[in-house]
Specification:
This protein is 35% helix and 29% strand. By secondary structure, it is an alpha+beta fold. It folds into 2 domains: 1-36, no CATH class; 37-141, Nuclear Transport Factor 2, Chain: A (Roll), CATH 3.10.450.40.
Length: 142
């Protein structure tokens, strides 16, 4: 029994110097995909930003209100609101890294916007991209 625990600690648990987690996607061998470093943070940020606030059972404050900006005018005020929402929720729920740049593009063919967040973490650089549109809004409200 102790060998299973030792294997778990060796293969699953991160350390103080290296964070690790699992993504909900399967590898070719049929196991969940293990991620580490900056990829863990980007996965966490993606979950935070795409979870509508109030939809998570055990923590109703968890998530973001980005979906509320889908039908707002495509102007500077809306862009500033989206940027502030992103910074606030990321600082609240996962402040292991800070975004260096946040780019927002309003969609031309439908209601919504896409965001690109650039980040640096322990000499790694990465980018998180997400699209929030009326399709995702109606899927959430249905």
């Amino acid at each position: 029994m102790s060998s299973l625990l030792a294997k778990f600690k060796k293969n699953v648990v991160g350390s103080k110097t290296k964070v690790s987690d699992y993504q909900c996607s399967l590898t070719a061998s049929g196991e969940f995909k293990r991620i580490s470093g900056l990829e863990v943070i980007l996965n966490s940020w993606n979950n935070i930003l795409l979870t509508p606030r109030g939809s998570y059972d055990h923590d109703p404050e968890y998530g973001s209100d980005l979906y509320k900006y889908i039908f707002e005018p495509a102007d500077e005020e809306t862009m500033e609101g989206i940027t502030n929402e992103i910074k606030t929720v990321l600082e609240t729920y996962d402040s292991r890294a800070k975004p260096t740049t946040i780019n927002i593009q309003f969609l031309k063919d439908k209601k919504g916007f896409s965001i690109d967040i650039f980040v640096e973490y322990k000499e790694e650089e990465g980018q998180l991209s997400a699209t929030i549109d009326d399709t995702s809004y109606f899927n959430f409200t249905s």
